[in-house]
Design goal:
Blueprint: H1 2-12, H2 14-20, H3 23-41, H4 46-58, H5 63-84, H6 93-110, H7 115-144, H8 148-168, H9 201-218, H10 220-230, H11 232-237, H12 242-265, H13 276-279, H14 282-292, H15 297-321, H16 326-351
Helix pairs in contact: 3-16, 4-15, 5-9, 5-12, 5-14, 5-15, 6-7, 6-8, 6-12, 7-8, 7-12, 9-10, 14-15, 14-16, 15-16
């Protein structure tokens, strides 16, 4: 009974122990300590600086900005984590994001529908544009042998150039000196919560994250994805069609990225501005969040909101302590460096050969 009780207690605390032993937690703690050293070196007080980050991002004046920023980061983190769960790396998030934004803008401007239906059509147009372009990268790998990492990254540049051309010439607002489209018609926008900048787009992104969590844990496709990520050769022997899976995952990934682009256009300032969707670097922040959580759905969402709070809190820290907000970007980089170093150390330790056990001689043998 005592042994059974002890095993139950240890089993009850196993999630806590796994969390305390996780590489992600150790990397974040190490980054915080390194950041504290940077703060001391600049003459700032670490506790006060970190306190201003927390209050500036989660306080009454900053929570709205955090949720607005978190909408883009969370959406892109989920988009990039979906193929990463199967061991695939989609680096074309910027191109899919921008194509989704320009498709939503063109749909909202020129499709003759009532405002609510125009919003829905713009969202679907953004998702379709992003999904089709991401699927093109998968086709390049499946048909022509171009690695997905290379094809997805290189395809981003013509996508951004094409969207820039549309915003500067065919769709450009007349009389404006900025490379931007006309403002969307009245009512063609996502409803906001009260007077804040947080829109229904946050709900859509949370729904996408929830579908990812459910599919990963409760569906056969989710099991195939995890199995492929853990051991592609075993998954192939088990009958998983990897090229088809790659195509499906990239299409879904691009669709979510395109949805984020459409949300950005259907929110303030309600138009497509060349470079505005990619200027903040949310695609790479989302990729960092997915890497930090090893593409686990819940962990990816938590990491994305953590980086959104860092991004917004960095401005408050800069105002309170005169420490440049770029310190938060340094923290993100340090997190990834420590995470990579810890994973490499764990891999080497696991690869270390185990000495065979010596047979035990029976008593009395000479």
């Amino acid at each position: 009974m005592a042994v059974e009780s002890l095993s139950r207690r240890s089993g009850a605390h196993s999630p806590v122990r796994r969390f305390l032993r996780s590489s992600a937690l150790h990397s974040v703690v190490a980054a915080v300590l390194v950041g504290a050293l940077f703060l001391v070196g600049t003459g700032a007080e670490p506790i006060g600086a970190y306190g201003s980050v927390v209050s500036g991002s989660l306080g009454p004046d900053g929570i709205g900005s955090t949720l607005t920023t978190g909408t883009s980061i969370l959406g892109l983190a989920v988009a990039l984590a979906i193929p990463m769960r199967a061991g695939l790396l989609n680096l074309g998030g910027d191109g899919q994001l921008v194509l989704g934004g320009i498709a939503a803008a063109a749909t909202g401007l020129y499709v003759p529908l009532p405002a609510p239906l125009a919003v829905v059509a713009a969202l679907f147009a953004g998702m379709l544009a992003g999904a089709a372009y991401a699927a093109l990268a998968a086709v390049c790998q499946n048909r022509f042998g171009v690695p997905l990492l290379v094809s997805s990254l290189l395809l981003s540049y013509p996508a951004m150039s094409f969207a820039s051309y549309l915003a500067r010439f065919p769709l450009k607002e007349e009389g404006s000196s900025l490379p931007q489209t006309r403002r969307l018609p009245a009512g063609v926008e996502l409803p906001a919560f009260g007077s804040s900048t947080v829109t229904v787009g946050l709900v859509l992104v949370v729904i996408a994250a929830g579908v990812f969590v459910f599919a990963d844990a409760r569906t056969a496709t989710g099991y195939e994805i995890r199995m492929t990520g853990l051991n592609p050769r075993f998954a192939a022997y088990a009958g998983v069609d990897r090229p088809r899976l790659t195509l499906r995952l990239m299409a879904v990934s691009g669709g979510v990225a395109g949805l984020v682009g459409a949300i950005g256009v259907l929110s303030f300032p309600y138009r497509f501005i060349d470079g505005s969707l990619t200027a903040a670097g949310h695609t790479w922040t989302g990729l960092t969040a997915a890497l930090l959580a090893s593409a686990a759905p819940v962990g990816t969402a938590v990491a994305a909101l953590f980086f959104a709070a860092l991004d917004v809190g960095g401005l408050a820290m800069e105002r309170a302590t005169e420490v440049p907000r770029e310190l938060t970007q340094v923290l993100q980089a340090v997190v990834i460096v420590f995470l990579a170093a810890r994973l490499q150390f764990t891999w080497r330790r696991a690869k270390k050969p185990v000495k065979p056990m010596q047979p035990v001689r029976p008593e009395g043998d000479l």
